[in-house]
Design brief:
The protein has 260 residues and is of the alpha/beta class. The chain has one domain: TIM Barrel (Alpha-Beta Barrel), CATH 3.20.20. The strands form two sheets. It has a nine-stranded mixed sheet. A three-stranded antiparallel sheet has the order 4-6-5, with no helix packed on it. Helix 3 packs parallel to helix 4. It is globular, with a radius of gyration of 18 Å.
């Protein structure tokens, strides 16, 4: 009886951003299913009113109070951050070494590709995972994990990317965090055993959903966002057990339609 009461007190403390934490035991993290529904909003005040099982929100910009409220509302919370690029507006930006930053991301001012082979970058990723734990996130959505297919300024190989992505997944799980593979469909076959779900942008539009099918084959969900509504996409999405929502490209909750 005492142990149950003690555990209840600890969990309540975590929800309200207490300094008390519970160390994750092996295999102790949330695992969504192919029927899990989701909402994705990275900018603006978070609309907490959707009937979705999982909310995917920004790690840095979302207040702890919002994360706590969502969890008390029986929602799971994925926290977004970029693992493969530096963003000059982030509070920890000055901790990246100059040597770790490469070419700018096309169309994204103030953002540069990172050398995912460097210890500095891996230390930064670990620090952000720690922040996700501190803020009470259920899991994480690390972005830009396909740098090897882009002009980064570094001679990154597929093996470099696989090693980094597996490092991300292992470090997240050590902390009891669920982790999503963001885009990177060409790596899905080799990474599905490490990641708990797929978060993808426009796999229907670009005919890339088949690459991700290994996730649903293992009972893991594919969370897909499309930016132009199409009823036929919903029909295909439901047939393939893909959780597709239609959003504004700004991911600001200015528009939303769900196929579920």
């Amino acid at each position: 009886m005492f142990l149950k009461l003690f555990r209840s007190i600890l969990i309540t403390a975590i929800l309200f951003n207490s300094s008390v934490t519970i160390a994750a035991t092996q295999n102790d993290w949330y695992r969504p299913t192919i029927n899990t529904t989701w909402q994705w909003q990275l900018t603006g005040k978070i609309n907490t009113n959707y009937n979705a099982d999982v909310y995917d929100i920004d790690l840095f910009d979302t207040p702890v109070q919002t994360i706590s409220f969502l969890k008390l509302s029986e929602k799971k919370v994925l926290c977004y951050f970029s693992a493969g690029s530096s963003e000059k507006w982030r509070p920890d930006f000055n901790k990246f070494n100059t040597a770790s930053m490469g070419k700018s991301l096309s169309g994204w001012a103030g953002e540069k590709w990172l050398d995912i082979r460097s210890k500095n970058v891996r230390d930064m990723v670990s620090s952000r995972l720690d922040l996700a734990v501190t803020k009470g996130c259920t899991g994480v959505e690390p972005d830009n994990v396909d740098g090897y297919t882009n002009k980064t300024g570094f001679a990154l190989t597929k093996n470099d990317q696989l090693n980094f992505n597996r490092y991300l997944a292992n470090e997240a799980h050590k902390r009891g965090l669920t982790i999503a593979l963001k885009n990177a469909g060409d790596l899905a076959d080799e990474l599905v055993d490490y990641f708990d779900l797929s978060v993808n942008e426009e796999c229907h539009r670009y005919n890339e959903c088949d690459q991700l099918a290994v996730f649903t084959q293992q009972g893991k969900p594919i969370f897909n966002a499309e930016y132009k509504f199409n009823k036929k996409i919903c029909q295909q999405s439901l047939k393939e057990n893909i959780r597709t929502i239609f959003l504004s490209r700004k991911l600001d909750d200015s528009s939303r339609k769900s196929c579920d």
